[in-house]
Amino acid sequence: MDALSFAPPVDLPHPSYFYADKQNNTSSMQQMGGCRILRHAPNKLVVALTLPWTSDIEGTDSHIVAREPAELTLAIRVSPVYLKLIVRSPIDMKKELQASVLRHHKAKEDEVLRQAEAAAEAVREAVSQEAARQEATHREAIRQEAAIQEAANQTPFDFDDPTTWENCNRTITNDGMPPPRARIPDMEEIRQALIVTTGQIFRTHKTVARASTIKKRVRKQFRLDSDFFTRNGWKERADLIILRAFSDAWVSPQPSTRSRPERRRGLWTTVN
Known about the structure:
Helices cover 55% and strands 10% of the residues. The protein is an alpha+beta fold and 272 residues long.
């Protein structure tokens, strides 16, 4: 104490500056070996040290501000992190371990719940796509059924009526090309055009013309694509229509110098 007598005694700070929380002060005294915290500022700590206190506080800038019996009062400038470490309560490792285990279980439960929600969402998406596909299939089936019903309700082509052939002949121009059409022909119109063209070629060229020539003339008549009769099964359908038209024209009285079997062989050669 004689070595520190050069420091003049000073008055203690205003009472409002002292550490107000007595419970925390008592706890701090127990942690600091009986020392008292007189002031707890953001960047300054004022403590009262007992006389047996001989440890040096490294990294601090301290000086004596007051002397009391059996204790020293120091003003220590330290960082806020150091002040928080001083007044921090001891860690209960058992509680910390329990909290860690609970957090681990909670994370596992959240992951399982997330995976279940993702699986349920995938199932709902698959069911929705399947329902949309079935709905599209049902609409397509209804459309096809309506088209078939409409074709069945149309007036059939009467091959025995002479006026039918005359009306068809009037629709064909001299060079075999019809007048321009503003709409796409339906299946029945194409079928009738194949039959009419087959009858005309049979009467003019007998069995010399080929099925490809008849289809080409009908395609030009309706301004169809060059590959129209090779798509959507129209190739086989057109061949059957042409064969039927040749057969109908064959049974009608036609002057010929060849025998009937020879004409039959010529008919199959023309269609194929």
